Amino acid sequence: MNMREARTMVKELRSTEGQAPDGLAEAIMAEVGLIDSWTEIDGPIGPLFVAWGADGITAAERSGDPVGFETEYELRHGRPIRRVLEMPAKLRAQVQARFEGERGKNPPLDLDTLTEFEQAVLRKTLEIPYGEVRPYSWVAREIGRPKAVRAVGSALAGNPITFVIPCHRVVRADGHIGNYGAGGPEAKREVLGLEGIDTRGLEQMAGSGVRYTGSDTTNIYCYPSCRHARRTNDRHEVRFHSAEEARDAGYRPCKVCRPLEGTPFAA
User: What secondary structure does DSSP assign to 75-92, as a single string?
Assistant: First the structure.
């Protein structure tokens, strides 16, 4: 069914003297992208409002005022939205897999209301593995905009699909956790803790100026949360205050976490 046929069918259903089944017109409109849907699901640290349309998930935020959510959504996307009882099973399974760190295909995402730069930031953030963190400056470098660190922070602060796109895995270059639009630093620590990250340990390292850790058996240095770094035995762990210090000691950057090789920016 194409868009014109769908509109014609909806018009006929609305004008018919008979009584169409409840929700049929909305279901047809949703199928062809004329109306989006949303529901409430369990998130990592509390319930979430999640919305989606014909092209994928469009929004995910911590539960609040349903009317306010719908109003803001319609203003942002320019199309109506309806509340439904549950997500399509496949989409729900993909979202749950993201929350639990399972490997597999990401759920489809609709980021069309965002700029090309904002989309690049969020899609790169999707690549940060479960249970690991990267600095804002890493994201900026990875998308080819190394000086746009503050702009990266702004794009992440406006992330419309929180938790699914894990902006909580992006931290300050000095190693401190930083702020978080979905509940502040404490919420950020909580969701990172559920992923197995020792946020207190990371911030203690940050407080002592440590930015990277290496293994004296491989001569490779990583971000402290990198899965390879966490496998290093305490006896073989070497700590570095900068990439320059690591290189001067004869260490190479990890090819998995790709630590910054120059002096990181402030954000």
Answer: HHHSS-EEE-SS--HHHH
Give per-residue pLDDT as tens, 25-44: 555 555 555 799 999 999 99
- Structure-token pair, residue 87: 């997500």
Please name every residue paired with 133 in a beta bridge, in sequence order, or none if there are none. Answer: none
Q: How far apart are CA 51 and CA 40, in angstroms?
A: 9
The per-residue pLDDT for 181 is 87
Q: How many CB atoms lie within 10 A of CB 253?
A: 19
The Cα–Cα gap between 179 and 228 comes to 26
CA distance 158 to 119: 11
Nearest partner of 52 among 71, 31, 23, 22, judged by Cα: 31
DSSP symbols for 225-262: TSHHHHTS-GGGEEEESSHHHHHHTT-EE-TTT---SS
Q: Model confidence over 127-185: pLDDT tens digits?
A: 999 999 999 999 999 999 999 999 999 999 999 999 999 999 999 988 899 989 889 99
Angstrom distance (rounded) from CA 53 to CA 81: 9
Q: Give the residue carrying structure tokens 């419309």.
A: 160
Q: Which domains does the chain have, with CATH numbers?
A: 3-100 (3.30.160), 209-267 (3.40.10.10)
Q: Are strands 237-240 and 220-222 parallel, antiparallel or unpaired?
A: unpaired
C-alpha–C-alpha distance, residues 185 and 187, integer Å: 5
The question of whether 167 is a catalytic residue gets the answer yes
Please say whether the beta carbons of 134 and 172 come within 8 A: no
